[in-house]
């Protein structure tokens, strides 16, 4: 089974993550930030990964540390579960519409982290959460998952729809890229021989 557990503790946050890449989309998520919980549940459900995540953070300040550190921990768990990345398809992409919004995500599980973020969010807050924090989550995830990640909102006007489509598109692209390729299950998908 391709799974991993990560425990991350700092003076700002304490996060425990367990992920199973070849899961059924089951989740148990608690960060103290309702909208972030909702997005992580989408990641699990639409990526068909099983995700258990419990986070306690300094929410009396704001949601920044909890959001960023959750991205770090989930990224680390994905990377650990991928192991040497032998047999994976490596590349994945998805277009996800949500009502008036359309988001495209393309990713490469190359172990060369990079984020391109072309997402304009009309509202500054969703519930109590600052919407600028979503870029921080994706940046932290890409860095620690070892993923080159391109996220682009092609169009949309509702911030909730745009952000949710971003997470669903990431989930679908990750599902494809992390899948074992039955034609090359014994090989690392690189001419270098390693990722």
Report on this model:
Helix 1 runs parallel beside helix 4 and helix 2 packs parallel to helix 3. The chain is about 35% helix and about 30% strand. Strand 8 (about 125) and strand 9 (about 130) form a beta hairpin. A four-stranded mixed beta sheet has the order 1-2-4-3, covered by helices on one side. A four-stranded mixed beta sheet has the order 5-6-10-7, with helices on one face. It has a two-stranded antiparallel sheet with strand order 8-9. It contains four helices and ten strands, in the order βββαβαβββββαβα. With about 200 residues, the chain is of the alpha+beta class. The chain starts with a strand and ends in a 17-residue tail after the last helix. The chain has helices spanning about 35-45, 65-80, 135-145, 160-180, and strands spanning about 5-10, 15-20, 25-30, 50-55, 90-100, 100-110, 115-120, 125, 130, 150-155. The model has no long low-confidence stretch (mean pLDDT about 95).
């Amino acid at each position: 089974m391709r799974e991993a557990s990560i425990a991350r503790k700092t003076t700002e946050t304490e996060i425990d993550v367990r992920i199973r890449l070849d899961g059924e989309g089951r989740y148990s998520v608690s960060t103290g930030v309702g909208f972030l919980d909702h997005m992580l549940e989408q990641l699990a459900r639409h990526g068909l990964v099983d995700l258990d995540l419990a986070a306690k953070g300094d929410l009396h300040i704001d949601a920044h540390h909890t959001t960023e550190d959750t991205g770090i921990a989930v990224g680390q768990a994905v990377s650990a579960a991928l192991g040497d990345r032998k047999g994976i398809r490596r590349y994945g992409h998805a277009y996800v519409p949500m009502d008036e919004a359309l988001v495209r995500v393309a990713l490469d599980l190359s172990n060369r982290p990079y984020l391109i973020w072309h997402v304009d969010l009309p509202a500054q807050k969703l519930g109590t959460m600052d919407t600028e924090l979503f870029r921080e989550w994706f940046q932290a995830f890409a860095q620690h998952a070892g993923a080159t990640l391109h996220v682009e909102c092609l169009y949309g006007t509702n911030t909730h729809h745009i952000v949710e489509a971003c997470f669903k598109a990431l989930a679908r692209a990750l599902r494809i890229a992390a899948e074992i390729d039955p034609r090359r299950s014994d090989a690392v998908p690189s001419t270098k021989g390693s990722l």
